Structure formats: structure tokens, C-alpha cells
């Protein structure tokens, strides 16, 4: 199994993006699954093109995008993405779409194919805050999640995709009073646990599909 894991570069005047740092620190293999790591820009349209090219080049079984969600207390696993780009701030190229449809022929929303509840539960079992989220926002994080789901819908029906939001790390909140943060190593450990749960769930689903455990 191959899992393409992406992380965004820093944005909004931040010097670091914990999502990218997590991706860099992930093992190259988790539960016998090859982890393909990719940095992507926090830029509408560029991010989608880069991920699409990576899908063509690497032919992964799963695409897992990771992004920063400052203000959240937990590692959050996104259940749904919507066909809307509505940016509160400009991206790293100065683009700031307002009330724009991402794909005119796409669905209003898509649900992830990943077992987000099982993934969150695996992280919480190790005493790391985790939760399922039902909004990926309307910035580039939602954009890339929607873009991948659109590709699955239109071109890659056997592909699975999902998105994880991670909190700020302590260095980012020194001058941000009352903002939550999580230690980077805890985030890395949490995401690794989530990927382990994902691989296990996927393997079990494959066994059931082929009748290995059904009587």
C-alpha cells in the first residue's frame, strides 16, 4: 500500500507550519505501508495541480492531506469537504477568492472515504486529544480536500482521500494569548497512530471484500 501524505508550507506570516513539520517527521513506512511525503504551497489552484501530478506519478492507494488549524485544541479528522472557496485572508500568492465554486461540475459536498472515527479513537486511546470535525473551513485546506475528492469522483474511483487538521505548536502561540497549542512530537505521534489505524482498517475492509472473514 502507498499513502501520499502532504503538508502545507507556512502561511499568514507564520514562520512554521506544523502540518509540514509533521509530514517531514513521519516514518517512511507505517504498518508496511509506504509513506510518500510531499510539501505543497498554501496557494489555491497550485496546490491542487501539484497533488494531482503526484497522484499520477506515484499512483497511491490513499491521499492524506494535513493542514494547520490554529485555534483548535485537538488533532481533527475531517469528515466532509464543500464546493466553496471563500478566503478570510489571501493565500501565499495573494489570491483571495470570495464565494467561488471550486469545480462547476462537482458535487456540493463530498464525504471522506477514510474511517475518521476509528482514526480519532486510536489517537485518543494514547491520551492525545483528537476529534472528528465536520468543517474543513473554506480556505486552501478545504480546497485541497475537495480537489482530491473531485478527482476520486471523476477519475480515480479506487482512490481514497482524507484530511487531518493539526493545532498550533507552542512556538507559534507565544504572542497569541489564549490560543491552544500542542507539542509537535505529540502531533507526529498522533498522526502516526491515525495512519496505523487507517492501514489496519483498510486491510480488514479488503479481507471482507474478498470474503476472507465472512461465512
Automatic annotation (TrEMBL):
Q: Which residues form the active site?
A: 78, 141, 165
- Could you list this entry's UniProt keywords, alphabetically sorted: Cytoplasm, Hydrolase, Protease, Thiol protease
- GO BP terms: proteolysis
Q: Does the keyword Protease apply?
A: yes
Pfam families of this UniProt entry?
Answer: Peptidase_C15 (PF01470)
One example of the protein's molecular function in GO is:
pyroglutamyl-peptidase activity
Per the record, its GO cellular-component terms are: cytosol
Keyword Protease set for record:
yes
Q: Write the Enzyme Commission number(s) for this entry.
A: 3.4.19.3
**What reactions does this protein catalyze?**
Release of an N-terminal pyroglutamyl group from a polypeptide, the second amino acid generally not being Pro
Q: Where in the cell is it found?
A: Cytoplasm
Against PROSITE patterns, the record matches this protein to: PYRASE_CYS
Q: Taxonomically, which superkingdom?
A: Bacteria
Q: According to its UniProt record, where is this protein mainly located? A: cytoplasm
Subunit structure, as described in the record: Homotetramer.
Q: What does this protein do?
A: Removes 5-oxoproline from various penultimate amino acid residues except L-proline.
Q: Which family does it belong to?
A: Belongs to the peptidase C15 family.
Which named protein is this? Pyrrolidone-carboxylate peptidase
What's the gene? pcp
Amino acid at each position: 500500500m502507498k499513502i501520499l501524505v502532504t503538508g502545507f508550507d507556512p502561511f499568514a506570516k507564520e514562520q512554521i507550519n506544523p502540518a509540514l513539520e509533521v509530514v517531514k517527521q513521519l516514518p517512511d513506512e507505517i504498518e508496511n505501508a509506504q509513506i510518500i511525503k510531499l510539501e505543497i504551497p498554501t496557494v489555491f489552484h497550485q496546490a491542487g495541480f501539484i497533488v494531482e501530478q503526484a497522484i499520477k506519478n506515484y499512483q497511491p492507494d490513499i491521499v492524506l492531506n494535513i493542514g494547520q488549524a490554529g485555534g483548535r485544541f485537538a488533532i481533527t479528522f475531517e469528515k466532509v469537504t464543500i464546493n466553496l472557496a471563500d478566503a478570510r485572508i489571501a493565500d501565499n500568492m495573494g489570491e483571495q477568492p470570495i464565494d467561488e465554486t471550486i469545480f462547476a461540475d462537482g458535487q456540493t459536498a463530498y464525504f471522506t472515504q477514510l474511517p475518521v472515527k476509528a482514526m480519532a479513537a486510536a489517537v485518543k486511546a494514547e491520551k492525545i486529544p483528537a476529534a472528528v470535525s465536520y468543517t474543513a473551513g473554506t480556505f486552501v485546506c478545504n480546497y485541497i480536500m475537495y480537489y482530491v475528492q473531485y478527482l476520486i469522483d471523476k477519475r480515480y474511483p479506487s482512490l481514497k482521500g482524507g484530511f487531518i487538521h493539526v493545532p498550533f505548536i507552542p512556538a507559534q502561540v507565544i504572542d497569541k494569548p489564549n490560543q491552544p497549542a500542542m507539542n509537535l512530537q505529540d502531533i507526529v505521534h498522533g498522526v502516526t497512530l491515525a495512519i496505523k489505524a487507517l492501514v489496519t482498517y483498510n486491510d480488514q475492509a479488503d479481507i471482507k471484500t474478498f470474503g476472507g472473514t465472512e461465512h
